[in-house]
Amino acid sequence: MTGRQLIEKMDLKVLQGSSGLDREIAGGYVSDLLSDVMGHAQEGEVWITLQSHINVVAIASLKELAAIVLVKGIEPTPEVLARAEEEEIPILGTRLSTFETAGKLFNILSA
Amino acid sequence: MKSYRADLHIHSVLSPCGDLDMSPGNIVDRAVQKGIEIIAVTDHNHTGHAKLTRKLGEAKGIWVVYGVELTTKEEVHCLAFFDTDEQLDQLQEAVNSHLPMINNDIAIFGHQVLVDEEEKILSEITHSLYPGLNLDISEAAQMVHQLGGMFVPAHVDRQMNGLYAQLGFFPEELEADAVEISWRTDTRSMMGRHPELSRYQIIRSSDAHFIEDIGRAESKLLMNACSFVEFRMALRGEQGRKVMES
User: Fold this and answer.
1) What are A2-51's pLDDT values in tens digits?
2) Cβ contacts (< 8 Å) between B74 and chain A: which residues?
3) CATH, domain B2-244, list 3.40.50.300, 3.40.50.2300, 3.50.30.10, 3.20.20.140
4) What is the spatial order of strands in the sheet that B150-153 belongs to?
5) Is B164 on the interface with A (CB under 8 A)?
6) Which of A80, B43, B71, B198 suits B26 as a labelling partner, its CA being 20 to 30 A distant?
7) ipTM of this complex > 0.85?
8) Residue of A nearest to B137 (CA)
9) B146 vs B2, B9, B138, B139, CA distance in Å?
10) What are the structural domain ranges in chain B?
11) Which residues of A touch B173 (CB under 8 A)?
């Protein structure tokens, strides 16, 4: 499953996706503590969070994550989107809560 | 120049987590007892005890810097320091406009009361002071600086609400005037892990919630006098003023 396919399945809004959407998704990780993500997320995972600070992009890049999914309709600032474009990290949005988003992603990836 | 003993992170009874004994009067008296010369009462997202603490401090020879502990959108705790009544009032207004107004549940979080110099309860703040502001850490720093204040990320080493836990690493664009490392952590080992901290003066404070904790950690400020201009230079490490290594 690629980011592009996931967008369709989960009806995600593409906030930044000019590149990086064809990467294969290896799994998911849910956390709003950025230090925890730095320590424990694995390469290729989709990261579900409500944090939209610019450090989110750097950490996704560092950990080579497949995409960031921002929940509850949260939209990042233009600076964050620009950084994500530079780092080729897709940022996807949903109006759903973290619980619902993670549940959907889990079902899709387990199917 | 002279070295002043400062405890710049103290919670009064106004903070939901602050002990009932933490009245401005008791805080000032305890500082006098401990030989602390400069204090700041830094309640969560509220400055309601700042002016009374300054008034009581003046009478007893304690220099009181106006302060607050802000919670940012990312739930990073940051100290902010101010000089004048006008700055303080503007800051409070700005904080109120960015704070989600949620009722405080006293049974869970505790009382948030304003008291007078005789420790009589004047009023209760009914909205919770716990939530994060609708400002990210850089926006919070900008707001503080625009009002003429100083911005200091608090207890950056702590797992709860510390900058490194919440944000993973020190944001490049963040304009901090100094950094606080909690009293529990060894400054040198923290600086070893995070070399970027050597750009800043490091303050240590008690983060007291109970009267006996005031002064359990302190910063020694090398300054010419107790004025906000000198204080700013000390926290920024300018013109020979500095925070001395403890």
Assistant:
1) 999 999 999 999 999 888 999 999 999 999 999 999 999 999 999 999 99
2) 34, 51, 53
3) 3.20.20.140
4) B66-71, B77-82, B150-153
5) yes
6) B71
7) no
8) A53
9) 30, 22, 12, 10
10) 2-244
11) 54
For A82, other C-beta atoms within 10 Å of its C-beta total 14
d(C-alpha B150, C-alpha B152), whole Å: 7
Domains of chain A: 3-110 (3.40.1390.20)
pLDDT, residue B15, reads 96
Q: How far apart are CA B120 and CA A61, in angstroms?
A: 54
Per DSSP, the three-state class of B55 is: helix
| H-type alpha helices, chain A | 3-10, 34-40, 55-62, 78-87, 98-110
Both tokens of B182, joined, read 């909690």
Amino acid letter, B232: R
pLDDT of B246 reads 66
B100 exposed, middle or buried (CB, 10 Å; 0-12, 13-18, 19+)?
exposed
Residue from the list B136, B167, B173 with its beta carbon closest to the beta carbon of A34: B167
Residues in Cβ contact with A106 at an 8 Å cutoff, skipping those fewer than 6 apart: A28
B166 and A37 within 8 Å at the Cβ level: the answer is: no
Q: How many helices (H) and strands (E) are present in chain B, helices listed first?
A: 8, 12
Regions of chain B short of the pLDDT cut 70: 246
